[in-house]
Amino acid sequence: MPRIIVTNDDGVHAPGILALAAAMRPLGEVRVVAPAVNQSASGHKKTLFQDIVVTSTELADGTPALAVGGSPADCIALASLGLIDWSTDIVVSGINRGPNMGQDITYSGTVTAALEAAINGVPAVAVSLDYRDADTPEDYAEAARVVTQVVRSALSRTLPPLTILNVNVPSIDRVKGIRLTRQGIRIYRDELESQGSTYRIVGPAPSGYMDEEGTDLWAVHNGYASLTPIHLDLTAHRLLADLAAWDITV
Q1: pLDDT, position 51
Q2: pLDDT value of position 6
Q3: Residue 121 pLDDT
Q4: What distance in Å separates the CA atoms of residue 98 and residue 133, rounded to the nearest whole number?
């Protein structure tokens, strides 16, 4: 049977990972390795030359899990380096409480856990639910159904190197279907609060351009699950020729 690592960034005891682990179990052998505490918006943080504490725990349904005192990327790095005593066929990260679309992916621990898997040569899928108040496994049922189909297909095919699949699911009882999408554009309206020398970034949830068909934001806004391939080559290829015309010399 396929060997599946399940992780997240909301923490090992979040309801989304409980729903995800249960959904993955019919597809293969599941191991859960997740942050001990919430690591949302931790980005692709990797802990080097510092101690990382790992403890054994259980999910609410009794599923054994490893709680890692580090980031989501740390969870996958440790697993790849031998924390898990078997080779992994796929990493599935989520189900995140809240979407990860557009520029969100650069902040998202959910997505970057999947990217860490890709760096280590393991196929990966990240999945997020467009509902920040989801607090029971039942809230994640439709997202779990959608990602099960994506993972089943990914297990039977080969993803290109350094590439993951990013899935976002609207908070509705039944999606209209799945759409292959590109990243949309988020609009952030962050605000700064201060009290003396203490600062806090606050503000409303990000919005974005919802009317640009073909983007992840459009799909989710219109009741579809979005499926976006993401790769780690961040080169702005179209700019290379223009840069040559700058004639920069040293």
Answers
A1: 98
A2: 98
A3: 96
A4: 8
Q: Is the pTM value of this prediction over 0.85?
A: yes
Q: Residue 86's pLDDT is what? A: 81
Looking at residue 85, what is its pLDDT?
A: 86
Distance CA 151, CA 126 (A): 10
Question: CA 110 to CA 191: how far, in whole Å?
Answer: 24
> Rounded CA gap, 208 and 219, in Å?
12
Residues of the chain with pLDDT under 50: none
CATH number of the 3-246 domain: 3.40.1210.10
Q: Reading across the β-sheet that carries 3-7, which strands appear in turn?
A: 54-58, 64-68, 29-35, 3-7, 90-97, 124-130, 163-170, 225-231, 178-180
| Separation between Cα atoms, residue 25 and residue 46, nearest integer Å | 28
